[in-house]
Amino acid sequence: NAGVTQTPKFRVLKTGQSMTLLCAQDMNHEYMYWYRQDPGMGLRLIHYSVGEGTTAKGEVPDGYNVSRLKKQNFLLGLESAAPSQTSVYFCASSYSTFRLSTDTQYFGPGTRLTVL
Amino acid sequence: KNEVEQSPQNLTAQEGEFITINCSYSVGISALHWLQQHPGGGIVSLFMLSSGKKKHGRLIATINIQEKHSSLHITASHPRDSAVYICAVSYSGAGSYQLTFGKGTKLSVIP
């Protein structure tokens, strides 16, 4: 099993450009998450999904959109990149099928994004 | 705002030392997680606990629900333990599968 994979690993954008980050998991997990990690701050939840076809906003959703058309994939989109979106982005997934889950989250390797 | 506080922020130890990293949180939780982030950036889950104590190799995690506090201990520390250790909690109630993270403790173990 590959676990959780992210594409790409690195990317440099100019302000105003758009891009999509792809997260894929092969563990048949229901829940998937996108986080950003900035220096001096804890991981912050951008968006999450509790199943195929569902998405919800996290703590810092502005400037991002997501889609979960297939259970194994969770896409994070930046429509018009800004320097404030320079960060390391992590995708994660967890198994649970019930609402009050506390299952372990499995993390991808991260995508380092720089917006000039 | 529900917060997770870790201490210390940075920790340098000599190889072989016993290490303790602390985590405190503000309200009731469903579970507390300890994560390790390697220098290369990858994040792995070490423990998930809701009460008592768990042990895996040289790592021990404890939680005191009444005091809203958890500790991660590393016995006989080794340079390969150098990493950032992150505490995260699932708060009780709606959306408890969502995690709130501490800022991490950067551990450096010197040979």
Helix/strand/pairing category of chain B: mainly beta
Largest sheet of chain B, described in full? 6 strands, mixed
Mean pLDDT of chain B: 91
Which strand-content bin applies to the residues of chain B? over 45%
Helix content of chain B: under 10%
Indicate the percent of residues in helices of chain A.
under 10%
Total count of helical runs of at least 4 residues of chain B: 0
Total strands of chain A: 11
Q: Given the C-alpha coordinates, what overall shape of chain B results? A: globular
Shape of chain A: globular
From the structure provided, what is the oligomeric state, counting identical versus distinct chains? heterodimer
Q: Helices and strands of chain B, in N-to-C order?
A: EEEEEEEEEEE
Number of strands of chain B: 11
Which terms would index this structure?
heterodimer, A: 116 residues, mainly beta, seven-stranded mixed β-sheet, 0% helix, globular, B: mainly beta, six-stranded mixed β-sheet, five-stranded antiparallel β-sheet
Compact overview of the structure:
The complex is a heterodimer of chains A (116) and B (111). Chain A is an all-beta fold and 116 residues long.
Task: Provide a descriptive summary of the structure in words.
The complex is a heterodimer of chains A (116) and B (111). Chain A has no helices and 11 strands. Chain A is mostly beta strands and 116 residues long. In chain A, strands 2, 4, 5, 6, 9, 10 and 11 form a 7-stranded mixed sheet that branches. Chain A starts with a strand and ends with a strand. Chain B has 111 residues and is mainly β. Chain B contains no helices and 11 strands. Chain B starts with a strand and ends with a strand. At the A-B interface, strand 5, strand 9 and strand 10 of A face strand 4, strand 5, strand 9 and strand 10 of B.
